[in-house]
Amino acid sequence: MIELNVNGGVARADVDPATPLLYVLRDDLGLHAAKFGCGLGQCGACTVLVDDRPVFACLLPVGAIGERAVTTVEGLGTTVEPGDVQRAFLQEQAGQCGYCIPGMIARAEALLRRTTTPTEEEMRAAMAPSLCRCGTHMRILRAVRRAAVARGGGIVDPAEPVA
Amino acid sequence: MTQSRREMLGGLLVAFTLAPAVHAQTGGGEGSGGPPTVAPDLAGTLAKFPDLDAWIRIAPDGRVTVFTGKAELGTGIKTAIAQLAADELDVAFDRIDLITADTGLTPNEGVTAGSQTLEQSGTAVANAAANVRLLLAEAAAARWGVAATALFTRDGAVLDGKGRSASYADLAGTTSLAVRARADVPRKRRDARRVIGRPVPRVDLPAKLTGLPAYVHDMRLPGMMHARVLRGPSSGTKGRFDLSAIARLPGVERIVRRGGFAAIVGPREWPLERALHAAGRSGWTAESGANAPGALPDALLRMRRETQTIQERYDEPNVRSLRRLSARYDRPYLMHGAIGPSCALALFEDGRLTVWTHSQGVEPLRASIAELLAMSAERVRCVHREGAGCYGHNGADDVAGDAALVAVAMPGVPVRLQWSREQEHGWEPLGPAMMAQLDGNLDASGRIVSWGHQVWSNTHSTRPTAAGDLLAGREIIPPFPATPPKPIPQPNGGGDRNAIPLYAFPNSRVVSHFLPDMPIRVSALRGLGAHLNIFALESFMDELAAAAGRDPVAFRLAHLDDSRAAAVIRRAATRFDWQGYRAMPHRGRGFAFARYKNHGAYLAVALDVERVPDEGRLIVHRAVAAVDSGEAVNPDGIRNQVEGGIVQSLSWSAYESAGHDGTRRSDYDWSTYPILRFGDAPRSVVVDVVDRPGMPFLGTGECAQGPTAAALANALWAAEGRRSRSLPVARSSAGFL
């Protein structure tokens, strides 16, 4: 039995410790925000936070997590009370198919926990590991800029003005 | 968070009577499927399903259910169709429930493709809603003994203005909607509209942004088993599998085998994926008859071809030409590259099969699966559930066929089958490689007096219409034959989509070379031939403008007699400040325009692009577009589609090319097929929507793909003085991972 600290609570799963976190979240804990995209750590659809860092849940074995805190997009807010990053994504309507977006939100959350005043380049570099195929990049970037402002900071040199 | 089966089945108590069972699919095309027209006087798909209860039902509690045969592919159609219904019915937006593509519930609207959802289904729903509103007003009028014209509606009720009102729920109890729509029912006046034309937020995003189950991938049914299919590395290969060894791998509970089709089944995903990787070690063979495409683009010229002249006009046969230009343009094979690999669920119970699928065409998929399983189509139900973004015919149909084959071997057990990333890259049909040859003549005044366009392309649709069009259908024994490819006729066109110029050239000849032999599995990719044809046409316009010594924007306007085309060109040029642009070293501006399919949305785009010396990477400083989609139902939805189309086309046109080594594909994940990342995304994108209230909806989802490719090449020419005629034109800054 593996014990995990997920979204502020304790979760248990009877799985092989080598199982990547993503399968435990989706199949055992019923947390569907993180998505399977490649299983190779190349696309970021599975991104979640472990402590405050973004990780590819499709690669990280659950047995390696220990007591570190796992945060998924479910832990950031709900449809009734969305978190500030989720709210920024909604305000910018940053989604087409939406499949990559939970990974994007997790990655943006990790960036903003590190700094709320990144440069445009730092923001883009932080988001770069996550792929979007619909071409929603501009809206995702607008949402991250907006979320930075909501956190009391802001992108130092935004390429587009924050509405 | 397991969803109950009842929820997943829609939980509807009643379904309307579907039109007589089997209709011949018109097949192959896009959005052209479905039953024949029975009411040509009615608008959109109402012409095929004229009865109102096929589209709209009102429950005793006043909630309204709207049915569309189209599917949400990530473009926001659920929101736009609900807007149309809410406004035309005069019901609060949040009281509308929308049921999308489901062979058991919704009208057969063929395939969701070709940017035709609002044109076909949106038009039908809007007119059906206007009809229902009138019927309810007439019911109230009869009840009160007054003229219907004396009544009005507000928020789900009919009122007489003197204190009497009757709710729709009340009136619907005595009003049958099983009646034919009338063609002459007026739509709501523009000034009375409250929802249409507004940037209503997408109805699907809150769930997607907070992690609620939203995709077929997220479905978990009670007692569900996972499955993975065993195949060779790519289309054109056969896997060699030691099934008895695979059966002993941990987590594999059983193997379902039908001839050359095999899938492993087990209760947990991760052990199955490990087994799938282990199974792949035993190698593969090239399929007999598989052949390499050869070096592109010349290989296309050597293929067997069926040639058709699709435009020939000689209005001024005796014109004198001063200067003749010719150029060839080409693109490679391209991937759809959905971020989530294809997935389907299937359940075979009591002799009936239900398949949950992200296919674009639940009806043709149902027919194909029924043939595959030798079942009657009435016993097969295909229900659309969203997948990762869909940009054409990807693995969605194939994986549904795979899941169906496994499910019928395991009655009563829901089966969830998901492809691996490697299978998606290796087996999805690619967008075909293409080439175009352009010829043009200028007269002494710098006017184009004759135009020639020839295009060489495989088919742009191998969408399933029969069992042999599904991968599994060709693996079982005996195999089903694939439907022979055929060209999609004009005015939509396939390989020749947008090959006919919208410009008013006095003399023009356009020739389509259809290449029936497919060395690589290909099918529909967003925009079909429009991507390459518009890239060629709009690049060549730039070349001719330069030869004539004219400004590219003025040159285009001088050759157009379409005022809506001119309007978007002027709007984009103004917003971009085309006149005020100052060139800088290694940096230039490019312009392009097209009307998608020559009958969809008008789009003009200007780009400001720099190629960083020595590095070779591109910086798109600005993209500015203007789009005319007719009446704008949701302007932000239109902007979202066009912004996305610009960025996606930049990715295709700058960076992408799917490889093949002669026997198999060479790209199995994102490491060798890099797509545009945030570092390469434009610094800024602005999209202006030119609204045309009262005008028909014009398909928008694919309108940016072609013009963006040409604007990019035109900007690079301005920046460097070198013409890029072969796509892709650059390398991703991400390079290879």
TrEMBL record, chain A:
Q: Name one GO molecular function term.
A: 2 iron, 2 sulfur cluster binding
Decide whether keyword Metal-binding is in the record.
yes
Query: What PROSITE patterns does the record tag this protein with?
Result: 2FE2S_FER_1, 2FE2S_FER_2
Q: What are the entry keywords?
A: 2Fe-2S, Iron, Iron-sulfur, Metal-binding, Oxidoreductase
Coiled-coil stretches, from where to where? none
Q: Which residues form the 2Fe-2S ferredoxin-type domain?
A: 1-76
Q: Which Pfam families match?
A: Fer2, Fer2_2
Q: Does the keyword Transport apply?
A: no
Q: What is this protein called?
A: (2Fe-2S)-binding protein
From TrEMBL, chain B:
Question: Gene3D superfamilies, alphabetically?
Answer: Aldehyde oxidase/xanthine dehydrogenase, a/b hammerhead, Aldehyde oxidase/xanthine dehydrogenase, molybdopterin binding domain
Signal peptide annotation = 1-24
The Aldehyde oxidase/xanthine dehydrogenase a/b hammerhead domain covers 210-288
Q: Which InterPro entries match?
A: Ald_Oxase/Xan_DH_a/b, AldOxase/xan_DH_MoCoBD1, AldOxase/xan_DH_MoCoBD2, AldOxase/xan_DH_Mopterin-bd_sf, N-heterocyclic_Hydroxylase, OxRdtase_Mopterin-bd_su_IorB
UniProt keyword annotations, A-Z: Signal
Gene Ontology terms for molecular function: oxidoreductase activity
Pfam families in the record, alphabetically?
A: MoCoBD_1 (PF02738), MoCoBD_2 (PF20256)
Name of the featured protein:
Aldehyde dehydrogenase
What species is given as this protein's source?
Sphingomonas spermidinifaciens
